[in-house]
Structure formats: C-alpha cells, structure tokens
Amino acid sequence: MTKKYYELTPDERLAFLNLNESIRNELHENQSANNAQIIENYISDFRVPMGVLKDIIVNGRHVSVPMATEEPSVIAAANNGARLLNGGDGISVRLPERTAMIGQILFTGCPFHEIEHYVAAHQEAFFKTARQAKPSIYKRGGGLLSIKARQVSNDEVSVDFEVDTKDAMGANIVNTILEAEAPLFSHFESHILGAILTNYATSQCVTVTGYVPVELLGGLQVAEKIVALNQFSKHDSYRATTENKGLFNGISSVVLATGNDWRAVEASGHAFASQYGTYQSLTTWRIQDNKLFGQLSLPISVGTVGGVISAMPQARNALRIIDIASADELRGVILAVGLAQNLAALKAIASGGIQRGHMRMQYRALALQVGALPEELELLVSQLNKLEHVDATIASRLLMEMRK
C-alpha cells in the first residue's frame, strides 16, 4: 500500500523533491528527531543565528536576553539602546493586575440586547463549564475571569471570555474552554459563526518606560530630533510602519528565541498601533528635566511553559538565560528590548544616518556570500570597512587579492 506524503519519513519526503544529492545530504544533516514531531511534512531544520543582548536593567535587575534573528545589526543596536537606557537606571515595567487571554464566540443576525441579557443571566453556568472543561488551569491558579457581550456592528456580536492562562501562552486552553461553552448558546445556534481565541491580547497589555540623560545621547539637539522623528510617526503611517518594524526587530527576536508565537505578537501590536483609526508608532518619546523619556505599551501574549516551548530544548535554554520566574516577567523583558531597539534606531537616524553603520554590520554576510573562509573573514571585513562604496564585485576582488 502506497504511503501518503505526510506518512513518509523526512528522507523519503526529500527524495520526492527535485534536489541534487549534495543538497539532500545537507538537509539530512540538519534533521532533528525531536523537531520532526512538531510540524507536518518535516524535512529538515532551518537554523536562525541566536545572539545575546548582554545587559539590560529591567525593574532593577540586570538581565541577559537571547535574540534569534537573521538580520545583521539588530543585536548590536539592542545592546546600544540598552546601554543608553541603563544609564538612566534601566526599564520600569507596569503590568495589569491580572493578565488574561481573550476568546470569542461570534454571532451574526441576532439582536445585541438578547445575547447581552442571556450572558448576564447565565454567568454561573459559564464559570462552572469552564472549570469542568479545563480543571488543570484552575489547579495552577488560573481560569475564566469574565464573560461579556460586546456589540461589533448592527447585527454582529462577540461574547468575550477572559481567561487567565498563567505561564502558558494559552491558545489551546482558551479554545478548549470555548468549545465547552458554545453548547450553552444552543438557543442562538443558528446565529453562531464560530468560537476561537483572539490574538489581540488587550488584557495582556504591558507598559515599559525608561529615560536617558541627554548628554549620553550626544546632546539636547539629538534628543530633540528623536522626539521629532517619533512625533512624525504619530502622523504618518509610512514612517510609523518602518519605526514599528524596527521595534519588532528586537521584540520578535526574543519571542522567537523563547519558542513563542512572534506572528501573534506582531499581529496584536499592529492592531494596537491602529487603535485610534490611523496607524501610529507604538512608542512615545519626550524631553523632560534634561532627560529623554520613552514609553512603549503593547498587548503581548507569551508563555514560559507548555506546548512547543516545552518540546524545544533551544527555547528552554533561552528562557534559562533570561532567568525569569513567570510569563509576566518575560513580557516585561521582551518589551524592554523593544524600547531599547527603538531608541537605538531613532538615535542612529537623528545622529546623521543609519545606513553606514547598518552596512558595516552587513559586511560579514557579504564576505561569506563571496566565499570567504572563516579565517579570512576578519581581514576582508576590515578592508571593506575602509571603503566608501562596497558591493559583491568589490568584495570578491579584494578576497582574490588577499589570496595571492
């Protein structure tokens, strides 16, 4: 009996692809028996470099933070921004009293007041059902916190379930509870569109703040330019998109390194950036008392246990480097890195341009691209750094001259 593709081994799947033997062998060498159990149609691992932000002060504690990224200059910038913020006593974190994920049961074609009345009248049944559906989260001190009906449009309603998932990211916990709750709405069955969590984690909104004495930035003029750039991004979505992308360079690198869902974090962040009807920068900078003050608020859903996190040794190792005790602590550290990343980018622009420094960080990748061996990298990069204009042709020529 012929196997279906998903039933094949990783090497059998590779054999179906139009690849030469050397590429198949390279993909085979990067296989992991553990990771083969995590995704479908697995063939090999795709490795992303992981570096470290060496020292950032978060709520008075010095933290080292792993960052997984393929983009040169991200980790260097994060370290630079952290150094500046550490000069102002580091980052302070403000969390909600209790963080929670939100699940939705979606209705259409039904008057809002009918569902609102029904939800209010059956609170006890909802809470009992949630406890029965997921008793393990209650044992850990979590569980359903609230159920509210919310009018979305004239004929659309969402019933929102807030669930404290403790240190788990919690998607499966929320969806399990929602599936158990849906039959309680049998009276409205024909109006139910579906039941699913939302990645817009507004009940997990965290705020981080920090300041830098203006002399550490290079003077008041640089600080004023940073504020002006930030203000521009409050009014121009083109600028805001680039500023937030840079912010997520740092945030998503930590989210990825710790085995969390960077796509969910970014989607939530972009929705939050649009909450006032136009897309804006997520950070705010101002000058006060000869200091540059920065603030970042972001809904962020991450975990430290369960799911893929527990299945991936590299994620567990990254969490050990950070050395935090809870998902809420992780949220604060991740956003602290985001604020540092944003500061470094704005300072680079305000100080005369980001491209020169950015390109210098690219030279190692360029050297590898043209075939430099590990022992040749330092010399070639050093020579490239001395030039005003660099491209692959120039790098290749210099490498050939080095080898003569």
UniProtKB/TrEMBL annotation:
Keywords: NAD, Oxidoreductase. Belongs to the HMG-CoA reductase family. It comes from Leuconostoc kimchii (strain IMSNU 11154 / KCTC 2386 / IH25). It catalyses: (R)-mevalonate + 2 NAD(+) + CoA = (3S)-3-hydroxy-3-methylglutaryl-CoA + 2 NADH + 2 H(+). CDD domains: HMG-CoA_reductase_classII. Its EC number is 1.1.1.88. It comes from the Bacteria. Pathway: Metabolic intermediate metabolism; (R)-mevalonate degradation; (S)-3-hydroxy-3-methylglutaryl-CoA from (R)-mevalonate: step 1/1. NCBIfam families: HMG_CoA_R_NAD. Pfam families: HMG-CoA_red (PF00368). GO terms for biological process: coenzyme A metabolic process. This is 3-hydroxy-3-methylglutaryl coenzyme A reductase. The keyword Iron does not apply. GO terms for molecular function: hydroxymethylglutaryl-CoA reductase (NADH) activity; hydroxymethylglutaryl-CoA reductase (NADPH) activity.
